[in-house]
Specification:
The chain has about 300 residues and is α/β, with parallel strands linked by helices. It has twelve helices and eight strands. The radius of gyration is 20 Å and the shape is globular.
């Protein structure tokens, strides 16, 4: 754990951002590792979707911990937890969440200033004390642990950019290791956030910011680029569009665009702790008219939105 935690901290370099690839289950985490992810993040929204729940405080701490622990055990890279508001209002509750997160093997977590399950923000003084408690708990651990302090008010419309920057300043003073204010007004605002601190800054690749390249964010001073639930929602877009074609038009053609089962299996193995590089490249995909799914007989029963 010490080695992974130290490696995770070392990835946070302003001006040379790494991609924190947010996954929603073991399979997506392993695939992202196989494709080059150097660290995995959980996503409260994406995790909630897998349980048929909406985002914003619907997950319990025990659910989030079990979910994170399963991903930690499945991949060879550091994992960071999206732990919403720390699963409690009090600083002591946030500190306990940090300790529990470290116990399941996480290399860090993010704590936001939203009074869930609503969208109001905690008073700035309380938000600062919560981060201070998280940092204190992290420093008492026997290994490194990255605390990310989130100022989420711009995303929820509860405060503006100046207030977000003031909160980030307070979180910086409180000892946060990385600062994060999702959904600033524009790229210029993101650059201002980066310029206001020497700490690493996380940027969310969602909404209009998904149109920025890694190189552009690097020039702004970003240290980490997270996906939030963007990739998970992209998979939901595929499900939606394919379902519309099937159920409204009787058109199954989009199903032919899927990866081959062999390639999926190879990536899942490659992205695990015991994975080895594949001996040959990925298949181009199934030939037209060929069903390559493993053992599928075709019989029924066969085997800015918020972006956390």
């Amino acid at each position: 754990m010490t080695e992974k935690a130290e490696a995770f901290r070392a990835l946070h370099k302003p001006g040379d951002p790494f991609i924190l690839a947010n996954a929603w289950d073991v399979g997506s985490a392993r695939m992202l590792c196989a494709m080059g992810a150097r660290a995995i993040g959980t996503s409260s929204a994406a995790h909630a979707f897998t349980l048929g729940l909406p985002d914003l405080g619907r997950l319990s701490r025990d659910e989030a911990l079990a979910h994170a622990e399963a991903i930690v055990a499945a991949v060879p890279v550091p994992v960071s937890g999206d732990f919403e508001n720390g699963f409690g209002e009090s600083p002591s509750a946030v500190a306990e969440t940090v300790r529990l997160a470290a116990e399941v093997g996480l290399a860090g977590i993010s704590i936001e200033d939203t009074d869930l399950p609503g969208t109001d923000s905690y008073p700035a003084s309380l938000a600062e004390e919560r981060i201070r408690a998280a940092v204190s708990a992290a420093r008492a651990l026997p290994h490194d642990f990255v605390v990310v302090a989130r100022a989420d008010g711009m995303m929820h419309g509860s405060y503006d950019l100046p207030e977000a920057m003031e909160r980030l300043r307070r979180f910086d003073v409180a000892g946060a290791d990385c600062l994060y204010a999702p959904a600033p007004p524009d790229a210029r605002a993101l650059a201002r956030i980066c310029a206001a601190t020497r700490k690493p800054v996380n940027a969310l690749a969602a909404g209009p910011f998904a149109r920025l390249t890694r190189a552009q964010m690097a020039r702004m001073g970003v240290a980490r680029i997270s996906l939030g639930s963007s990739l998970a929602r992209l998979t939901h877009r595929v499900i939606h569009d394919t379902a519309v074609a099937m159920f409204e038009k009787g058109d199954f053609s989009q199903l032919a665009r899927g990866m081959s089962g062999q390639d999926v299996d190879r990536l899942l193995h490659l992205g695990s702790d015991h994975g080895e590089a594949p001996e040959e490249g990925l298949d181009e995909g199934p030939e037209e008219g060929h069903d390559e799914s493993h053992g599928d007989t075709g019989r029924e029963g066969s085997s800015p939105e918020r972006s956390s």
